[in-house]
Every structure is written in C-alpha cells, then in structure tokens.
C-alpha cells in the first residue's frame, strides 16, 4: 500500500524503498485511533511486533514514536510509522478518524449517548487508547478528565458508546451487507447482530445507502411544508406536511418515512415573512428575512394577535382564516325613550357592546366571532368601562353620552328600531335642521348661505341643550351668526344672555345688539361704576371684568353664554377661565377663528368648557378626536365659502441693519447674551423671562434704536427697517390706499404716529389704553382723510372690522404666526372688495 502523497515528504527515500522491499513480509493488525492520533500492531516476518504512534495535524505528521530500536533522526521517520499511515488511509486520502466522524457508526453511537441509552456489552478496553489520548489531549483536558468533568466532546469521547461505535467502525467499515428494519423499534441487522438504532441516527443510514439496500426508496423533497392555524385566545401555528400533521409522519432526523419512502420537506420560504428594510440590508449584509418557521409550533400571545392579524390578513386568508379587525357596521337599535334617556342596544357587526365590555373587564386582547376579530382594549371601547347594562344588553344613555359613543366608535353607524329616536341618531351627522330654526328673513337678518348653515347648527345645538364651538376663519361673520341665534331665541322666549368678548370689540357687539335686538334691554358691564341691573336680560362684558366681578355674575343663571374670541381662555389654569367656569349657563357657545394655536390640548380645553365632561381624559387617536368633536365644532375656511373674496398677497420686504443698529445689537449680545451663555455652559437653569427679555431688546433694536426702552440709554440713531417702512407708507398713500400698521411695541407705535403727525397724515389708533375704540374704527372707516390705522397686535388683532383698508403692514413679527394671521384678517374678511 503506497503512502498517501501528502505525507511522502515526511519519509526519507531510503525508508520508502524499504517499504517496497519488505512490504509483503509485514502485517498490520489491530489498528486504533483517537482524534488525529493513530497506532497499530506492525508485525515483521511474523516474529517482531512494533507499536508506532503517529499524530497528524493540518495534513502533516506532527508527532510520532515507535518501539523499534532504530535511532530516528529529525525528518527521518521509521518504516513502521509509514505502515500505520498507509493502513489508516483510503484511496481518496482520508484518514480513519475522518471517515469515522462521517460514518453511521458514529451517528448511532452519539445518538445513543445523547439519549442516555444503556450499553449491553461494552467494547474491550485497550491500553493503547490511553497512549493515544496522551498524545492528543491538552494538559487542561487531561486535568478535567482526572476530575471527571469536561466539555460535551470530552464526555462523549470518554463514554462506552464512543468505544463501541469506534470498534464497530473498525470491524465493519461501511458494512455493505447491513440491512435496516423498521417496526416498533429501528434495528440494523449485520451478520448475526441486531443493533438498536436511535431514530435520529437513521438519516445517516439513509445517506449511507443502507435504507435503499434494505428495500426502501429514497426520494428527497416530496413533502410540501405549511402551517395550520388555530385560535384559543392565542394564535397557534402548527406545522403540517402535505396538509398532514408533521408529527403524524414518522421522522428520522431530516427524513420522514411516508409509507416505504424516505423523503424530506421541500425548501420553502418562511411564511408571514417581513422583508428586512433596504437600508438594513445595505448596512448589514446577509440579514435574514424573518418569518414563522415551518418545522415547529409557533404561538402568538394574546396581546400580539391583533397586530399580527392586521399585518398578515391576506396570508391568513390563504390558510382559510378570514379575519377583519374592524366592524363594518355599528348598529344602534333604539326602543322608545325612558324618561328622556335613550334606550339603545349597540352591536358591532355580530358582537354586542355587552360582550366587549365583559372582555375588557377580563383584560382580554382578542374577541372573535365569525370573521370579526376585535381588540376589546381598543380606545374606541373605553366608554364601556363602568357602563351598566340592562336586560338583553341594553343601555340607557343621555343624548350627550350617545354622542360620545358615536364619536368614539369606528364603522358605519346604522339605525334600527324606534322611529321617534331617529332624530337623536341623526343629530350626530346633521349640521342643521332648517325646519326647526326660525328663518333669517323673519328675523330681519340677511345671511349668506354658509352663515345660515352656521346659525341653524347653533339652533340645533341649543335645542338639544348642547354647547358648541363656531370656529370659522377670521372675517366670515361668526358674530353675525351668533347674533342670529340670539335674535331667534328672543323671538320665542325671554332668555337671559351673557356675552363676553375682548375689550377691543365691546363697541362692535354693542352696535349689533342695538341693531338686531332693540327690544331686549342689555347692560354693557364695563368701566367704572358698573352695576348689573336686575331687569337686564342681556349683559355684555369683557374677559377682564369677568375675572374681577365673577362673584356678582355667578349669582345669576344664564340661558345662553356667548364667548367671543374664546381662545383667550384656552388655558384652564388661568383665573379668567376659572372665573367663567363658576358662572352657570344652560348653553355655552364659543366663537374663535383659532381653536388650535399650539397643540390639540387647547381644543380640548375649549370643548370641555362648552360641553363639560364630554371628551375622554386622554384622546391620543387623532381620528377619534376628529369624530368626537365633529358634532360640536363647526369650522369653514375662506377658501371654502368666500370664493369671491379678493386675493391676499403676501409681500415680504427685507432690509439691512444700519451700522448704528449693528453696534447696538452687538452691545446687547455682549451685555445680556454672553452671561446667559456662560450660565448655560456651567449647567445653570436660566429663567425663561431672562431669555425673552434679551430677545425683546434685540427685536426693538431691529425696529428702531429710538424705540428701545428698559433703561438702555440709546440715541435715536437710524434704522434700515424704518427707511423701508416710511417709503412703503408713502407709496401706498400716493396710490390712494388706506393702510393698517401693527406693532407689538407701544414705543414703536408712538414713533410711527409722530412721523404721521409731522407730515399731517390723518390716522386712527387702538392700543390697550384706548377708551372709545368704536369711535376710532368708525373714523377710519368713514373719514376719507383718515388714511392710516395704527394698532398694537394684542389690542386690535381680534374682533374689529378694518375692511376700508387694503394694505396691512406688520412692522415687527409676533411670536405666534396665527396671531398675525388673525390681525391680517381684520382687513381680509367678509365685506372686503379690494385685493389686500
């Protein structure tokens, strides 16, 4: 037997020649190996026996020894070592240990060891085994062996099953005559021996061809893997093969026995897979596609069922599971009202509200009936908590409670039952009830179509004892629509009315009341010496007065409270908001063009005021919030209703700071900004007011150095912005246009007014200290020589009509864009016939 070529270099030419001359006289007996160490009994001339040991590492002979008497030089191995190498090798160059590791004998032995089977007759011990272990085990492994511990590999190699399987491998090799017999047990028949085979080791017998030689056919990938779905509060995915339970087919490792055929499952992609995002794939190459495995049971817990169903609805349908996670119809089945309470049963397709309420009590995450899978803990069912049901799962609801239900739930609402309750059902969807509200013409009021809709909606609300928010854009006549409601109420009853508005629009409301309800005695509760007369059916006052006089106002109960520019009380913690809360009113109507300036909590604060207790505490779902507020909030934009309104053109003018302004700007940055930055770097918390004050100084420097107050001694200097402004005003006046100028700083308005007075340009003005505001707006409207209207944004940015102008100049920017837009809409509003 020739030496494998990869080991030729280890032997000298003389040793190789010896093999050729004495090879026929040498017998190699009882070969043995452990890992990469090999030995055998080498007998020469039937007289002398040698026991060489060869250790092979990385296809090279690493260590060796022999019991022959020759003195071996480095690089010159004895012929006995060559005989061991050749006897342990096959024609393909593999050594015995390599063939053993891939053999079915090793698979049978290792599977038996793992299963803890008892070995009937252990292989005989061989002292050479200990010798081989000394050559291959590391010092650490040998120490662990002494202690009786070690890795799973060490434990396997120390077991009787290792010695058994190695011995059978050395005795039988590939055992071509062996046969496989499968009954209650699996056995390997070889010669006169019956060997019990663990099921997991059978695949090695199939791979070795023994199954085929035993009469079984081997056809890979005949079975199609899939999953069967069941639901028991959880989604359970059970693996199946060709629609049969995977466990019903006898399994032997990766093979299944289908009759007399050994086969495997086809290679199928995972089901319910979520492809990895492209960005992840690029960043982490070879990222796997996730999905449910096809070879073992997967359970989706209750809290994860609905998200899974929503995501994989179509794939579930392919497995025979139809699943809808939203009810298509929400049926309201009414019976005749009981003591003004609505008697209604509510059903979500086939699932009743009572069933959902019970599931919520149990904290269940899935409720299934038919193909409808609902999440009882969904926010749309929060109103069910604490709800009391009566016979047949029915509810007694006030109209407000009913509207909260309608606003909370999703799905198309369907009416059934008592015809007399149909009006309550429709009130959620109807914006007006033309048959019930007095006609505007009969009230002596001329309303646009959209204003009639708003008035009829207000009428419908008060008829049902509901408040509401009229949130039309600035300039669409919210005051006019509210006045129509007041006019209608005074025609059919003698209501007690409270109207609260900003001080700047008191005159506007006084004029409207005198014009449209002259028969109603009203008091303007404002100014020094104010009193509330007992015979006054209507009281007109300001937010500031309410805050200071609420103790007197709260002694009266009002049928209607109208809050103009209601966003003023958007913060529930303010004294004004709380003072108004203390005043009792049957109906509260709020008018505001900006129900949301900063965040949706402002809308909730306003709606909580006009419809107390209606909105849930926390509405994080925006779609639900929209449904809930829909019956009580009416908002139209100019673009929707004023198609004939002339355009609003925004012209932004830019300018440079003058050299003097730049110097002052840097001075403030140095004196006020630098200390703030130092405190921030030191980790100190800076009060907001300090930052705001610094920004205010900088803004006023940009306006005009002469307008800066606050103790800064600054000469008049010049201003780039002032130069642009004066040129713009002159251009407008030369063109015959009237101009409105807004600024948030009173010193700046004083500079502007001094400039106008010096040039004998007529102007009107409203600031916080202005007493007769109505006279100022009338003079600007009616006096052709009054060309300019100056105003502070806070005092005149709301509620007044300045449509005689066609130019609005914001000399400086307000902190909130919405407030600027409101001020601009004093000019660009209903009644404007010129481009603005």
Strand order of the largest sheet: 28-29-27-30-31-26-32
The largest sheet is: 7 strands, parallel
Gross geometry: elongated
Question: How far is the N terminus from the C terminus?
Answer: 108 Å
Alpha-carbon Rg, integer: 47 Å
Task: Describe this protein's structure.
With 836 residues, this protein is α/β, with parallel strands linked by helices. It has 31 helices and 36 strands. The strands form 9 sheets. It has a 7-stranded parallel beta sheet, with helices on both faces. Strands 1, 2, 3, 4 and 5 form a 5-stranded antiparallel beta sheet that branches.
Task: Please provide a brief summary of the model.
The chain is about 35% helix and about 20% strand. The chain has about 850 residues and is an alpha/beta fold.
């Amino acid at each position: 037997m020739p030496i494998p070529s990869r080991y030729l270099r280890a032997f000298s030419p003389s040793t190789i020649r010896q093999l050729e001359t004495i090879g026929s006289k040498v017998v190699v007996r009882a070969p043995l190996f452990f890992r990469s160490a090999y030995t055998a009994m080498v007998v020469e001339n039937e007289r002398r026996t040698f026991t060489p040991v060869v250790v092979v590492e990385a296809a090279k002979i690493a260590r060796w020894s022999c019991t022959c008497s020759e003195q071996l030089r480095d690089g010159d191995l004895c012929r006995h070592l060559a005989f061991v190498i050749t006897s342990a090798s096959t024609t393909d160059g593999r050594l015995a240990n390599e063939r053993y590791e891939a053999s079915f004998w090793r698979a049978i032995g290792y599977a038996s060891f793992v299963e803890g089977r008892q070995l009937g007759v252990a292989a005989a011990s061989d002292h050479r085994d200990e010798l081989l272990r000394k050559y291959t085990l590391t010092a650490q492994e040998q120490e662990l062996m002494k202690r009786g511990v070690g890795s799973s590999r060490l434990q396997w190699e120390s077991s009787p099953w290792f010695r058994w399987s190695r011995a059978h491998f050395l005795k039988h090799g590939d055992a071509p005559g062996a046969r496989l017999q499968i009954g209650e047990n699996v056995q390997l028949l070889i010669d006169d021996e019956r060997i019990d085979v663990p099921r997991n080791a059978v695949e090695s017998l199939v791979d070795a061809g023994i199954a085929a030689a035993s009469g079984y056919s081997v056809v890979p990938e005949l079975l199609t893997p899939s999953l069967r779905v069941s639901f028991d509060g959880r989604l359970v995915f059970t693996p199946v093969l060709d629609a049969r339970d995977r466990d019903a087919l006898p399994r032997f490792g990766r093979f299944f026995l289908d009759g007399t055929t050994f086969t495997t499952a086809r290679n199928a992609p995972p089901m319910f897979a979520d492809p990895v995002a492209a960005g992840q794939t690029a960043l982490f190459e070879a990222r796997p596609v996730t999905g449910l495995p096809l070879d073992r049971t997967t359970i989706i817990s209750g809290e994860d069922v609905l998200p899974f169903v929503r995501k994989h609805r179509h794939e579930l349908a392919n497995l025979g599971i139809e699943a809808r996670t939203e009810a298509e119809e929400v049926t309201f089945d009414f019976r005749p009202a009981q003591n003004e309470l609505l008697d209604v049963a509510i059903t979500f397709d086939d699932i009743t509200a009572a069933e959902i309420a019970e599931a919520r009590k149990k904290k269940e995450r899935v409720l299934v009936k038919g193909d409808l899978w609902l999440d009882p803990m969904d926010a749309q069912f929060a109103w069910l908590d604490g709800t009391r049901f009566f016979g047949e799962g029915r509810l007694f609801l006030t109209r407000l409670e009913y509207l909260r239900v309608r606003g909370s739930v999703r799905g198309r609402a369907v009416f059934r039952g008592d015809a007399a309750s149909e009006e309550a059902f429709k009130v959620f969807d109807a914006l007006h009830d033309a048959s019930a509200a007095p006609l505007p013409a009969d009230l002596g009021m001329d309303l646009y179509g959209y204003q009639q809709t708003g008035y009829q909606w207000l009428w419908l609300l008060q008829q049902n004892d509901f408040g509401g928010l009229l949130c039309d854009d600035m300039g669409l006549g919210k005051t006019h629509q509210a006045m129509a409601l007041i006019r209608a109420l005074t025609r059919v009853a003698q209501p007690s009315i409270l109207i609260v508005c900003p001080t700047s629009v008191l005159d506007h409301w006084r004029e409207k009341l005198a014009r449209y309800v002259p028969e109603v005695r009203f008091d303007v509760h404002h100014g020094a010496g104010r009193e509330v007369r007992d015979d006054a059916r209507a009281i007109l006052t300001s937010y500031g007065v309410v805050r200071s006089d609420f103790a007197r106002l709260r002694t009266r109960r009002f049928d209607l409270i109208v809050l103009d520019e209601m966003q003023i009380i958007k913060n529930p913690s303010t004294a004004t908001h709380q003072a108004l809360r203390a005043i009792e009113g049957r109906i509260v109507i709020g008018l505001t063009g900006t129900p949301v300036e900063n965040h949706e909590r402002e809308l909730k604060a306003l709606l909580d005021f006009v419809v107390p207790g209606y909105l849930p505490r926390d509405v994080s779902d925006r779609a639900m919030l929209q449904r809930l507020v829909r019956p009580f909030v009416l908002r139209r934009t100019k673009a929707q209703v004023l198609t004939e309104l002339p355009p609003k053109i925004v012209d932004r003018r830019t300018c440079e700071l003058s050299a003097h302004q730049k110097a002052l700007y840097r001075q403030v940055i140095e004196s006020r900004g630098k200390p703030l930055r130092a405190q921030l770097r030191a980790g100190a918390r800076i009060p907001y007011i300090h930052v705001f004050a610094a920004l205010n100084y900088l803004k006023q420097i940009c306006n005009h150095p002469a307008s800066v107050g606050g103790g800064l001694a600054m000469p008049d200097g010049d201003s780039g912005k002032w130069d642009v402004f004066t040129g713009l005003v002159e251009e407008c006046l030369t063109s015959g246009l009237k101009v409105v100028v807004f600024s948030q700083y009173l010193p700046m308005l004083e500079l502007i007014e001094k400039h106008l007075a010096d040039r004998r340009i007529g102007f009107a003005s409203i600031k916080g200290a202005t007493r007769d505001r109505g006279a100022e707006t009338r003079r600007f409207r009616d006096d052709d020589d009054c060309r300019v209207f100056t105003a502070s944004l806070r005092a005149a940015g709301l509620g007044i009509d300045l449509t005689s102008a066609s130019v609005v100049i914001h000399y400086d920017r307000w902190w909130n864009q919405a407030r600027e837009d409101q001020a601009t809409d004093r000019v660009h509003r209903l009644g404007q016939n010129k481009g603005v």
